[in-house]
Amino acid sequence: MTDKPREECGVFGIFDKERINVARKIYYGLNALQHRGQESAGIAVCDTYGAKGNINTHKGMGLVSEVFHEDVLSTLTGNIGIGHVRYSTTGASNIQNAQPFYLKYLKGTLALVHNGNIRNAALIRRQLEQEGSTFQGTSDSEVIATRIVKERLRTASIEEAVMNVSRELKGGYAIIVMSPKKLVGIRDPLGLKPMCLGKLDTGYVLASESAALNAVGAEYVRDIEPGEVITVTEYSITSDTSLVQKTKAHCIFEYIYFARLDSCIDGIEVYNARINGGRSLARHNPVEADIVTGVPESGITAAVGYSLESGIPFRPVFHKNSYIGRTFIKPSQEEREIAVAQKLSILKSVVKGKRIILIDDSIVRGTTIRKLIEMLKKAGADEVHVRISSPPFLYPCYYGTDIPTGNQLIADSFSKEEIRDMTGADSLEYMKIDDFKDMVGDLPICRACFNGEYPD
What we know:
456 residues, single chain, alpha+beta, elongated, seven-stranded antiparallel β-sheet, Rossmann fold, Glutamine Phosphoribosylpyrophosphate, subunit 1, domain 1, 26% strand, 25 strands
């Protein structure tokens, strides 16, 4: 079981006005978003110039490179398409919940990909079931797709149907809907989930992160405004901002952990945010030490920031084995801890006799950080001082981030001093909520998993 918060999904969409097959670009875009979900991957494509409404879909369990091979990509022909990588926070991890979702209805066909979590999905699902709808899986993404199809039967366009359904949704989401002639993207009005717009020579791209635009050679244009609906057709790209509101609450964990270092989200470069977070930790939580290091890969950049601010040299002390496969849920705590040692080993000559500051982005259950401290001290470290570039997790997330509840959150059950003793750290300090301004300036952010104040 992971000791990190996890994002739910990554979404990607492309419309090329020329008769260029886009499946390979979607493949490259999904590879760039693989960090957002590793359980399943899928692509749906259509030829707007003669497909007669046919949407061709392929999806499967596993990484993008495991689901898609040349023989599969060669069959996915079309100039418009969407793609998805998934980590499940709602709905079981199985092929029935893999995306894109493809639906046929009286007026045509559509496919949908979604990142996030809909708080009122159960209510919408019951209403649809009462009206006769059936579902293949258990995810709220399928509920959204089914609801849009219902709405499309009484509206003039797919974008109008998307707009109307979005008025009903409560939660965080980035959704891309594909019809045979259009690509429609919408971001939740709070801006909890990211989505940006890119431009190709002959078309446009929508993606969860700007890193995916870079991967396909698209020029970054801008972030989709929270609440904005973007529609791309052969002839135009249009924007509807009627759902845009003043209140916004961007997910702070995009900057702490989720997003790729080379992404820029809502005008803030992720790399700079993490460097500044580390600098803030050093200013507010100093300690005498010989070296600073970070937990690979998530704590490295903040550790560099801590080193720059404190003047204590940064040193890599872990060797990460990049060829270890994905670690699934283990049957015992002992095996979970062995998995950590398989992936990471210690550079003993670097740590022996040293006082070490160990930086990580979060502590969820405390199992991983405890094992790392144990490994460092066994290798000869004199002291290990832990600094965390986020506050303690105290509350669950209802917007698409997998943060558990109750006794699975170590900070919910134990004090900072108790966690320090349980993990074997010589000292432990967290970032304060007020210090987020050092990372993201005046950007309005969601702090609910730290203080229980949920945005609406």
